[in-house]
Specification:
single chain; alpha+beta; Glutamine Phosphoribosylpyrophosphate, subunit 1, domain 1; 9-stranded mixed sheet; 26% helix; glycosyltransferase
């Protein structure tokens, strides 16, 4: 399951899309520091959370500058672009689309503003009341053009929030946030800024992680603690569900916009977050190892070797081996340089499928009874191809063990799963899935075993993708979906508004996209 940052996703086969994270966000307020480079490295640590586009906004207290483009963090930024982002506060974003298509217009941070200043906003999560927010934007903008990026083709829930935050020029950004945030439903972790102040906010359920860190000369907020580590920030605490934080020259201040009703995403522990991240007091790697131990207790089998599907199944495979006493080994070699495949494989290579990224160690596998541990099964195509490949390499038996329950329901809170009809576990039992994969046996961890491994209280976790129990009531089907806003906001002014120097006027506020980002505007 290879990810573009070298970590793994379910994309071991060409065209096989697994669960994708919504986004990663990072913010820093640190006078005297190179905030653009700190943000760049913070996003690098969060690359696994979004690989479609990346962007950074920075301000020196007077002027806000943004640079964003399609691609990985390392592809979007270079020394020149980072050098143009001067200032003492910055926010950054890496995106995987859950509302709105994967286009340059939808890259973040999104921008808005009025004569009083500019606002840049980055979002991790997914709002489920975008239709309601769209109606509110229509109401406030009247018969005039849609504000900010909405009028230039942006079709994201993030642009809706940005428009609402900047709708009233007589209100401060902080006052606007305290009015808008309680209206939002779904998962959101925001970092946003104007020319002087950095803000962070988290939904009342705390579905996605967001943490606060301290630098010697400033503050950092980020989606995961691993991003704090990479920039040398010390972990202070989580941003609390329902909390708005503001950081400026007067220091840090906090306000509540809603009461906490914690429902953290259990899939963060299973797969989404980096293993070196800590969520609500639990190190993710430890949780995954414990899931493997529970899996061994729940689904024992006689075998010669426990092996992971590299690399997402590795911690659970280690736990399974520890608990069962069966030796752990690497039966597959991954090509470390195959991440996102921009060059489509030829038909011949496509037929080889999974071998583009994994190859079996035949001497290790031949004649062995194998236990293959993975984190989840979505469509099942990858596991089916993997079982076949291991048998061709001489495996005597192949027993598949999964460190999460069957995925049967889509996520509306910031993970882009396959549709329910495409999920292999929908409507069929474990034995039928096992036969479909061609495995000798199949065992999923129980919901109770998975939750116990996280050390979280069951009632404070969201398990909707496994149970269908959604903690935030969903609107009607016609008010949901990734493309909900695609046809709702016609483009009022085209991307030709961007000049040769890359300057885009957003609500009469001049915002510059430096260097290559100007090219990106002309080649969305």
């Amino acid at each position: 399951m290879a990810r573009g940052d070298g970590r793994l996703t379910h994309d071991l086969m060409p065209g096989e899309k697994g669960p994708q994270d919504a986004c990663g966000v990072f913010g820093v307020w640190a006078p005297g520091e190179d905030v653009a480079k700190l943000t760049y490295y913070g996003l690098y640590a969060l690359q696994h959370r979004g690989q479609e586009s990346a962007g950074i906004a920075a301000s020196d207290g007077r002027r806000l500058l943004v640079y964003k483009d399609m691609g990985l963090v390392s592809q979007v930024f270079d020394e020149r672009s980072l050098g143009s982002l001067k200032g003492h506060l910055a926010i950054g974003h890496c995106r995987y689309s859950t509302t709105g298509a994967s286009t340059w217009e939808n890259a973040q941070p999104t921008l808005g503003g009025h004569d009083g200043g500019t606002v840049a906003l980055a979002h991790n999560g997914n709002l489920i009341n975008s239709g309601e927010l769209r109606d509110l934007v229509d109401e406030r903008s009247g018969s005039g053009p849609h504000p900010g990026e909405l009028g230039r083709g942006n079709t994201t829930d993030t642009a809706l929030v940005t428009a609402l935050l900047t709708a009233d020029p007589d209100r401060t950004l902080e006052d606007s946030a305290l009015e808008v945030l309680p209206r939002l439903r779904g998962a959101f972790c925001f970092v946003f800024m104007n020319e002087q102040t950095l803000y962070a906010a988290r939904d009342p359920q705390g579905i996605r992680p967001l943490v606060l860190g301290r630098l010697e000369r400033g503050w950092v907020v980020a989606s995961e603690t691993a991003a704090l580590d990479i920039v040398g920030a010390s972990f202070i605490r989580e941003v609390e569900p329902g909390e708005l934080i503001a950081i400026d020259e007067d220091g840090l201040r906090s306000q509540r916009f809603a009461e906490t009703d914690r429902k953290g995403c259990v899939f963060e522990y299973v797969y989404l977050a980096r293993p070196d991240t800590t969520i609500n007091g639990k190190v993710v790697h430890e949780a995954r190892v414990e899931m493997g131990r529970a899996l061994a207790r729940e689904h024992p089998v006689e075998a010669d070797l426990v092996m992971p599907t590299p690399e997402s199944g590795t911690p659970a495979a280690i736990g399974y081996a520890q608990e069962s006493g069966i030796p752990y080994g690497q039966g597959l070699v991954k090509n470390a340089y195959v991440g996102r495949t921009f060059i489509a494989p030829s038909q011949t290579i496509r037929q080889l499928g999974i071998r583009l990224k994994l190859n079996p160690l035949k001497d290790v596998i031949k004649g062995k009874r194998l236990i293959v541990v993975d984190d989840s099964i979505v469509r099942g195509n990858t596991q089916r191809a993997l079982v076949r490949m291991l048998r061709e390499a001489g495996a005597a038996e192949v027993h598949v063990r999964i460190s999460s329950p069957p995925v049967r329901w889509p996520c509306f809170y910031g993970i882009d799963f396959a549709t329910r009809a495409e999920l292999i576990a929908t409507g069929i039992g474990v034995e039928e899935v096992c036969r479909s994969l061609g495995a000798d046996s199949l065992g999923y961890i129980s919901e109770a075993g998975m939750i116990a491994a996280t050390d979280q209280e069951p009632e404070k976790l969201c398990t909707a993708c496994f149970t269908g129990n959604y903690p935030i009531e969903l609107p009607s089907a016609d008010r949901l979906g990734k493309g909900l806003l695609e046809l709702e906001f016609p483009v009022d002014a085209g991307l030709s508004d961007v000049t040769e120097t890359g300057t885009l006027d957003v609500d009469r506020v001049s915002v510059t996209a430096a260097g290559g980002a100007a090219e990106a505007v002309r080649r969305p």
